[in-house]
Amino acid sequence: MARDYTLHSTKGPASGINYKAELNASQYEAVSAPPGHALVIAGAGSGKTRTLTYRVAYLLDNGIPPENILLLTFTNKAAREMLDRVSALVQVDTRRLWGGTFHSVGNRLLRRHPERLGYRPGFSIMDREDQKDLLDSVLGGAAIDKGSYRFPKSEVLAEMFSLAENICCDLQEIIDTRYPYFDLVSEPIHRVHQLYREKKLETNTMDFDDLLTLSVRLLQENEDLLQTYQRMFQFVLVDEFQDTNRLQCDFVDLLVGEGGNLMVVGDDAQSIYSWRGADVGNILNFAEHHPTAKTYKIETNYRSVPEILSLANAAIEANTAQIRKSLHASRPGKGTLPALVQVDNPGAQAAFVAQRILELQDEGVDFNEMAVIYRAHFHSLEIQLELTQRGIPFQITSGLRFFEQAHVKDVAAFMKFAVNRKDEVSFMRLVRLIPGVGSASAAKLWSDWSQCEGSNEGAMTGRFSAYMKEMKVPKKAQSTWDQFGYTLDELIDPQGLPVAPAGMIHSIVEGVYADYMKAKFKNYEQRAQDLEQLSSFGSRYTDPIEFLSQLSLLSGVDTDNAPAAEATQDREAVTLTTAHQAKGLEWQVVFAIWLADGMFPNRRVLDEGSAEGVEEERRLFYVTVTRAKDELYMIYPLIYHAARDGNVLQVPSRFIADLPAGLMEPWNVRSVF
DNA sequence: CTGACCCTTCCCAAG
DNA sequence: GAAGGGTCAG
Questions:
Q1: Distance CA A278, CA A246 (A)
Q2: How far apart are alpha carbons A660 and A337 in whole angstroms?
Q3: From CA A14, how far away is CA A60, in angstroms rounded?
Q4: Residue range A498-547, pLDDT digits in tens
Q5: Which of residues 563-592 of A touch strand B (CB under 7 A)?
Q6: Diameter of chain A by CA atoms?
Q7: What is the pLDDT of residues A242-252, one digit of tens each?
Q8: What is the b/e burial string over A231-241, where b = at least 16 CB atoms within 10 angstroms of the residue's CB?
Q9: pTM across the whole model
Q10: Nearest residue to B15 (CA, C1')?
Q11: Residue A153, CB, less than 7 Å from strand C?
């Protein structure tokens, strides 16, 4: 059932966009590509987002209804940015267009048809911590003999299961290739895996991977839905295709089907997620996989000065597995080379960065236009101290995410449980907030609750307190338990349906949580404020299920629209970020720090000794340096004091050592203190 | 059985 | 420096 679409531009675009004038020749070619499959190789800083944005506008201009377009991106932020830009270009309601991350699109599909997979509406989404809790619960009941052999902890199990899902292979294969030392216990691992899957269905919960795995299954097992969605998504566009894994690729293939039109955009030189299953082969072999596909290369870089671009090109040169392209700069030369800065130690590194930031500010560069980029979160430690001491404002993309903080998760647990009464993880979390209830009582209470709920369908909808009153709790816990019951009752209306999110949060905080926070946390005020922001975020939603989904789907990378980020958004601040999270962003000035072997590239990767591993690190280095528009500082400390090994002498990163000396300028930094 | 306290361990990247 | 694990008093 091939579908043919011809794109006409006879009467000129309704939007009045002059595509040829606003794009360069190769961008225009990709934007105006005929229907069918297309691979767009867009180098760093070549206007990839612009190209995708204009492509969507072009489709709309040619009469494709927005609901027939699906735009898959890597982060929510990227999706939002592109849709905003499309709205600015054409007068079409882009809310009708499906755009978002793979996970959010999966979520949307599954929310429409949960019953097809044996799920109920209002299923909960577990984050990493919830997943670990559920696995621990499974482990507790699985009678695993942990004495005789080393059995993987729940985090490790989660990692293994996730990898198997994402690269669509058998769990045994993961054990064999990546965890051979667990081969002795592979039988119980499989058993836990099975129990875990059953438990998820039983508690009406999904983990992150399920959002995709189950979406794929939904489409594979339901021909009618497959037809519906294939017909719906006539034009599918995928951003950052180099970072897709097998599961995501299968999802796309299913949605596109035989006659669909698929455009994938990416840059193989920026593939940096193989450790979570991304397969750069998806982009490298796309043309082979789809013989009719046309390939477009966009090789003009608008971002960086030629001095920086030359260095970047030289840096990636050493990689063998890549699509050859020659990225050239459109900007004029600047006359100064990227700086190579050797400093004595991490303290001096931080001092250098801080001082240079202040000098640049004097020269008129905004703090917002400066970033410090590093390989691992802990590399930012000294910089944070130094910037704080000097009063330089900064924002950091840390490992700690707003929605993963204990108090936010506690409140969310009440909401999740109100929406999904089978949610064991949330139930356990909230009853353990009660004084006098530990893990043993919590487990007992859950078993009572699920029994009462199982034998009595009424418990699924009626007032919570009616059922909770019947349950036995430790004496010490009784009054708080009752209070919890009344609070939960406030979260549902007389029909038993959950009320709006903002109201829920209010009830929870007023009813029980404020008291708990005061007793538990030193920084009660701060946390109370967080919850107020959560509530104001919640007021954008009427449907608590929708709100909770968004909470789960928002990640650390794109918490832009998250409450915590909003407070700092318009403030001028230097950005501190990992190289991974810097992907897709740009700044006038970039400080790349800790460029020593063992730090960047990472020690573990070097120890593993795989050439692919080092190539990925090199791509990560490429991503780092290509973030810079005007100035790039590559810095490494000679000596650092390790916790265990004392003073360690460092060697400059091989990625720097491999570069021709003429591409950078060594700076001599003298400490005057 | 709970919860306070102390000890050790950990550090690569994230949806 | 935080978080998990072990120990022990109440």
A1: 7
A2: 12
A3: 9
A4: 999 999 999 999 999 988 888 887 778 878 888 888 888 889 899 999 99
A5: 578, 580-581
A6: 79
A7: 999 999 999 99
A8: eebbbbbbbbb
A9: 0.89
A10: A555
A11: yes
